[in-house]
Amino acid sequence: MKSLQLLIYTPEGKEFDDEVDFVQVHTSDSYLGILPEHAPLISDVIISKLLVRKNGVDEAFAVGEGVLNVKHNEVKLIVSSLERASEIDVDRALAAKQRAEERLSRVDSKDVDIARAKAALARALNRIAVSGK
């Protein structure tokens, strides 16, 4: 069976480099399923679940926003963050969710950065969903 090379980079450097069978990633337009021999593509990536299949086994990751490039049977993701579902600290994500919700409840306060609070809430909700707990 054919495979494709998946490379994932974060601000910390290369986080993932392996041959895989399938990648599912969420862009602002849709969920994309990427198989070997996929047509060249550049797109954005939103805070979401990334699914990677290798040898029939799926592994889920929580990813931050970033960019996707598919070319010559290689998928490159450059994202702000990457966490394996099995490594997500759910208690920490729940605490982050609560903090973000509290900030957003004080919308009239001058010291609240609404966009930042919404992004923090989106990241926390994604981590909770990807963890499956």
Give the SSE layout:
Layout lengths: L3 E7 L2 E8 L1 E5 L4 E4 L6 E5 L2 E7 L2 E7 L2 E6 L2 E6 L2 E3 L5 H16 L8 H18 L2
Parallel strand pairs: 1-9
Antiparallel strand pairs: 1-2, 3-4, 3-6, 5-8, 6-7, 7-10, 8-9
Helix pairs in contact: 1-2
Q: What does the model show?
A:
The chain is an alpha+beta fold and 133 residues long. It folds into two domains: 4-85, Sandwich (ATP Synthase, domain 1), CATH 2.60.15.10; 88-131, Single alpha-helices involved in coiled-coils or other helix-helix interfaces (Up-down Bundle). The chain is 26% helix and 44% strand. The chain has helices at 90-105, 114-131; strands at residues 4-10, 13-20, 22-26, 31-34, 41-45, 48-54, 57-63, 66-71, 74-79, 82-84. Strand 8 and strand 9 form a beta hairpin. Helix 1 packs antiparallel against helix 2 (114-131). The termini are far apart.
CATH architectural group of the largest domain = Sandwich
SS element count, helices = 2
Shape: elongated
Broad CATH class of the largest domain: Mainly Beta
Distance between the amino and carboxyl termini? 33 Å
Number of strands: 10
Tally of individual domains: 2
* CA-atom Rg in angstroms: 16 Å
Write out the strand line-up for the largest beta sheet, numbering strands in chain order: 2-1-9-8-5
Fraction of residues in helices? 25-40%
CATH topology of the largest domain: ATP Synthase, domain 1
Largest sheet: 5 strands, mixed
Class by alpha and beta content: alpha+beta
In short:
The protein is an alpha+beta fold.
Features:
alpha+beta, ATP Synthase, domain 1, Single alpha-helices involved in coiled-coils or other helix-helix interfaces, 2 domains, 5-stranded antiparallel sheet, elongated
